[in-house]
Design goal:
The protein is α/β, with parallel strands linked by helices. The protein folds into 2 domains: 3-169 and 246-320, 3-Layer(aba) Sandwich (Rossmann fold); 171-245, no CATH class. Helix content is 38%, strand content 15%. The chain is built from 11 helices and 9 strands. It has helices at 17-26, 73-84, 113-126, 139-150, 171-178, 184-204, 212-217, 221-233, 238-245, 276-280, 308-320, and strands spanning 3-4, 35-40, 46-52, 58-63, 88-93, 131-137, 159-165, 257-261, 285-288. Helix 2 packs across helix 11 and helix 3 crosses helix 4. The two termini are 28 Å apart.
Length: 325
Amino acid sequence: MPILKSQLTTKFPFKNPHVNTIYKFFYTKDKPAYNRKRIDTWDDDFIDLDFLTADSYSIVVLIHGLEGSSQSSYMLSTANYLHNLGYDVVCVNLRGCSGEDNRILKTYHAGKTDDVDYIVKHLLNNHNYKNIVLCGFSLGGNLTLKYLGEYSNSLPNEVKGGIAISVPVDLTTAQAELGKLKNKLYMQEFLRTLRSKVIAKTKQFSEYNPDPKLIAKATTFRDFEEIYTAPVFGFKSPEDYWEKASSKPYLSSLGRKALLINAKDDSFLSLECYPYETAENSDNFFLMTPKYGGHVGFVTSFNDASYWMEKQVVNFIQNTLNIYS
């Protein structure tokens, strides 16, 4: 019955989910000295990978959330924490998120696990890692869980498991939750950068010509999926995309052990994003739902040095997956 209890205690004002979410977003950690490697993909594009190496046989693959990058605060803090313990770390910059636009019309989406599989195979073909663990945040967590389920019958032996944090495992209901008034500021920020990327693609690719008025008026994820994700990636509709990209259907058939940490007060998540019943009936799917934490926050106090989130990652790697640096 892998529902794990959490011992997260936090103080005012971090019991407010928005304070927790926003503070973590702006709370800067020491920036590690990444070693960037650009890998060319099968479709004439590229993915930028940022490495922190410690000559370990174990590597943790960190995957950021929507419109994040290797420079996102949660990526920096987790990468530093793992590296200081002796693990090798690679921070994935999803297509178009490394500070340079990618080469093709397609960028990334919440269910694009072929990129994850390609990155894993690159690590195996070019390094001597015995253990590979995936750790994804928000959208990156959905990719992590979907990959472990979708590729369950073909996962390399070196892939030992994964951790997913603050994940909208049910995209249909989560996008509706994000569209509510309480999340208006977050939605505006997401769509600000997404709209600018779509506009850039229209200038780069003449065959992609959505109505500029629709781009300017896009105020919900459904608007964006209808303008870009669905037509560009071949989905029938936004609803078709949400259904096919969600990791929730894969949670009962994960090929490796995986932990999902979703705070109960995460304003981004719907009730359907807390799959207790699946965890209760699974040998591989572990679930932890602390009362507080916000969205990829889990801050306990000002100048937070508890590293609660990062410790959960390491505890699962060491105590459940039995992997050490």
